[in-house]
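Hypothesis: this fold can be encoded by more than one sequence.
Test: take the structure tokens below, design a sequence, compare later.
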């Protein structure tokens, strides 16, 4: 054994006295005033950090425009991708044989036909440039607007 029962009690009483010392009214070696000052410091510190975060978000949101994106580094018409439609990933054709690439041309023309300017004029509303247009939600199908490209 490690020692007598009195030595074991003394060791455990040291731990108990460190956790709560009834003579000095200390919890884990600190008085209530010391704990209060530590809690006050961290409360002020984290409130300051939260305020800095809110301030930086507010300043960042002031720089954004509601109607125009800041960065326009993508295609002019996002969402449209032009590639030949085929059954396989590898596309082979011969320039001299129109049968080898004629199907690709037909598929591409049929895909792009709704984007033809004459068709767009018939189906789209006119949108003047530099003017924001808000459509009311009427429950009907919203119309597209022609944009200058």
């Amino acid at each position: 054994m490690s020692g007598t029962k009195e030595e074991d009690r003394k060791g455990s009483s040291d731990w108990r006295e460190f956790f709560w010392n009834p003579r000095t009214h200390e919890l884990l070696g600190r008085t209530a005033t010391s704990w209060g000052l530590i809690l006050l410091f961290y409360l002020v510190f984290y409130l300051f950090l939260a305020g800095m975060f809110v301030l930086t978000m507010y300043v960042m949101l002031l720089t954004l425009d509601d109607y125009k994106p800041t960065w326009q580094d993508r295609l002019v018409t996002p969402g449209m991708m032009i590639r030949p439609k085929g059954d396989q990933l590898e596309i082979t054709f011969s320039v001299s044989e129109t049968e080898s690439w004629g199907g690709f041309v037909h598929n591409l023309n049929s895909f792009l036909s709704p984007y033809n300017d004459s068709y767009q004029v018939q189906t789209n509303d006119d949108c003047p440039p530099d003017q924001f247009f808000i459509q009311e939600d009427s429950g009907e199908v919203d119309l597209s607007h022609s944009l200058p490209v």
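The chain has a mean pLDDT of 76. The chain is about 45% helix and 5% strand.
Hypothesis status: open.
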